[in-house]
Design a protein that fits this description.
mainly beta, four-stranded antiparallel beta sheet
């Protein structure tokens, strides 16, 4: 599981713990968890136009924990 921070156009933000985040071709940003390659459960879904940024929590180049911004244009995915 990885933490993802979602910044919304209304100025709010939220953190989701998920195994996968993706910006789909359909214009959605989704967060999912799964136990196998075919058994995935969608935890959250946002319309891309409602989201200003998505960040993944992980180690920075110096090894300290940091929020890394994901691409603003899709499609993309990350674990």
């Amino acid at each position: 599981m990885t933490q993802f921070r979602i910044d919304l156009k209304d100025g709010s933000n939220t953190v989701v713990e998920a195994d996968l985040a993706a910006h789909t071709r359909a214009g959605e940003i989704v967060f999912e968890t799964g136990t196998t390659d075919t058994d995935w459960t969608r935890l959250a879904r946002y319309r891309a136009e409602d989201v200003t940024a998505v960040y993944r929590r992980g180690p920075a180049t110096d090894g300290t924990p940091a929020w890394t911004r994901q691409p603003t244009a899709g499609p993309w995915w990350c674990y």
